Amino acid sequence: MTNALFRPLTPRWGMQKTWSDGRSTKEVAAQFIKPNDRLTSFERLEIYNRQYWFRVLDCLHDDYPGLRTILGTSKFTKLAIAYLERYPSNSYTLRDLGDRLEQFLREEPDWTAPRQALAIDMARFEWAQTVAFDGPAKRSIDADDILTKSADQLILGLQPYLSLLELDYAVDDFLIAVKKSEEDGLRGEASNAVHSAPRGSRRKPVRLPKKQKVLLAVHRYENMVYSKRLEPEEYRILTALEKGETVAAACESALSESGRTDRDWTGIIKNWFDTWSALGWFYLPS
Amino acid sequence: MPSNEFNGFTDYGIGIGLRVPHYRHILAKKPVVDWFEIISENFMVDSGRPLEVLDQILEQYRVVQHGVAIYFGSADDFDRTHLNRLKRLVRRTNTPWLSDHLCWGSVDGRYTHDLLPMPYTFAVAKHTAEKIKAARDFLEVPICVENVSSYAEFHASEMTEWEFLSEVVELADCGILLDVNNIYVSSKNHNFDPYDYVNNIPHHRVGQIHIAGHSKFEKYILDTHDHPVLDPVWKLYAHAIKLVGNTATLLEWDDRIPSFDEVHHEALKADKFRENVIAAR
To answer: Which residues constitute the domain of residue A174?
Structure first.
């Protein structure tokens, strides 16, 4: 039965008529499913086959509105089917359904041609939002935690829910525009309520983002998800901290790569650390 | 009339499923509700908004956990990450009992995210009951298993669905979450009398009841949870209450969710059925 459920549907959202070994699916279904006075074994099995695909496609449809808009609903749906064929859910929660989507987009660039780079940027950004929404948090540092430590000894961890992204497109602004243009509903994982086939949504078209280097921190504050644009040096300090460098080493390496020598880096970096601390981004690794 | 040992002898009244579109209303207006049922998996997260909302709900209301992914009927072993997180949530909510479905849904680590019917055989019943017992021992909370709606039957089945349910709960010594809408849906899809089902299960094990709406199609009925409860389901509910006594009841409304007040109003209809039935006893 599992093999039947995971097999992709036909373009008309029906169960495939031929089984993987060349037999008719009718024959296979009849071997283990009873018919009744209204439905054949094939038709009864088809209900489950359809419900599986409607459920998982509906989930990706909701979780990736940006990628869906970039590709268009039809192309997005084909991509989602190909993705789920290779990477079916391996988690008890639909929340994790997109956890290998970026990997798949890199493995199979044809699905997103000619917008591969934009699609990958958007998939990364949308997954980072899932992580920021309910990802794990560690106790944020307070002043007492670091009072006695000098910058060349101090190592700060970044919250696991925080993602640092270096992107080639301004997908942050684009996603805001996409969400404004369509109803922004949250998915609830309900009991065995059934789902319907993916549909195109009626909404105003949103112009695709232009190529533009964007550095982002996707995080949450007071349990709301935000993305914050970062300056290059800011991004470099944070990525260095993420790799486990001390505060002093992170700042030093970030500034050594910066060509901007005309700025008051001491004051700027202090402000950045004040902001990051206030946002709760740091924890003290044990 | 007190409830039974399978729901911890609680008498919870009429509950409503806690759903995202109602969060704001519930937290702001604090409506009088006997209890909320949560989908466990929606709150088995590390941190963030879901747990913040849950903690606020727990300050005001009683919460009962209902799961969709234990899959007692799957041949696989339990997903230990799932069970550990579930246990953490049980401790957080202090749920008096925990329910999940009499179904399977995963194989070799692949998840269908569906509640799939099982072949009703003695071997499957034994396997399922052992998993229920193991889950209860680990989670340290009473468990009720829910009958699912189904659209297919297996040649391999050796008994009716209600005989299978009875066999499983007797072997596992656990409770039943009796979903009367699911019974009605399956009865139409499989041509059996829903009253035979309700009459022939161990009534003393029914710890909770679900009611919900469904959708009729030309050749079958789908369990859509997107409508008010239909009359035949209310009648079946009244019959079930007559047999099992005053039992915690929950209205499920999971799709095309209307305002909180509308859902609440629909749920409270169950009170009238209960009062009438109890008064007539």
So the answer is: 64-183+203-283
